[in-house]
Amino acid sequence: MKKKFIIIFLLMIIFSFLVFFTLSNQSSKLNSSKFIQSTTPTLFFHGYGSSANAERHMTESARKAGVTETIIQANVDRTGQVTLRGRIPKGAINPIVMVQYEDNRNPDYLQDAAYAKAVVEKLKQTYGFQEMKMVGHSMGNMSILYYLLEYGSEENLPKLTKQVNLANHVAGLENWNLPSNLTLDPQTGQPSAMNEQYQKLTGLREVYPDKQIDVLNIYGDIGGNTDGSVLNVSSKALKYLLINHAKSYKEVKISGHGGQHSRLHENSEVDQLLIDFLWRK
Question: Which stretch is the leader sequence (predicted)?
Answer without folding.
Answer: none
